[in-house]
Amino acid sequence: MTPPEMEARIVRYGDLKPCRTAFIDAHTPGSDRKENFTIIGGGVSEAADQHVHITIPHGFNIGAAGQPPKCRNSLHSHRTAEVFFVLSGRWRFFWGRWGDAGEVVLEPGDIFNIPTGIFRGFENIGEDYGMIMAILGGDDAGGGVIWAPQVIEDARDHGLVLSAEGKLYDTKRGETLPEGVGAMPLLTEEELQNFPEPTTREVIPGYVARYLDLAAMADRDPVPVIGEHGVLRDKPGFEVALVTRASATRRMHRHDRPSVLMPVKGHWRVVWQGNDSTPAGEATLAPGDTMSVPENLDHTAYPSMTGEAALYHVVGTDDPAGGTWRVDEP
């Protein structure tokens, strides 16, 4: 592929286009200053004006959330995987029907494979604007978001109504539900019983990995983070690995499906080959950039400057993009 063709598959941090009305809590005090980004695939945004940077199917979606201090994302659940890693800032993740079943605080580079089927939320508890990057299972990301009932009720009090079809309507702008379309029904108490309330001690060992631990393990080879043989054992429809300066190689390789490079630390040079086995081009990635590498393209990535360097590598698998909460046996 030519450099212009490859550049079209790179979303630079500085070129990210935010949506400030992506979800039902966009007007709710405490959640009304967040920005959502859909980088690869449409994600689960409920707004018609959400910009999608790359529409090529990968078998998973890549997104991001940017929030100023003390801004939170309201309690919701997904039917497929939701994996976050912290790009910048300090973040508190919490879960449960009311958000009080458990919590964990993550720092830059830390990764959280949030169990499916539980209500979860997060907030920036740092002192500056922070960003978390997200990987969602499946090309359609599981068909939307399931909101805790109180979130829908609070949103209605502040002018936002979610239709049964999963689309947002802003009554403050004079919007109303179309004729024949009802509002999203609240989950019943019986339905709410199907959402587990795992404790912090149950969640952290199998679902949270600290960046410093992963970087130490990637001293020779990239460390599998999420996958059948990963530090976090799961098969959510994609695999995630961490590559560091110590485990990077200039040896060309390829995948039989699109893969994604997401730098966490340092600058990375990505080199790819053309049909004549000579380098066709190269690009440099910085933290916050996201690059989609085409399937069957020989390429390599390695640090381009001195200093700490690490990136997350994501590639799809044939495993189903769903699952349920589980507690691993000791």
TrEMBL record:
Signal peptide: none annotated. It holds the Pfam family Cupin_2. Residues 69-132 form the Cupin type-2 domain. This is Cupin type-2 domain-containing protein. It comes from Roseicyclus elongatus DSM 19469.
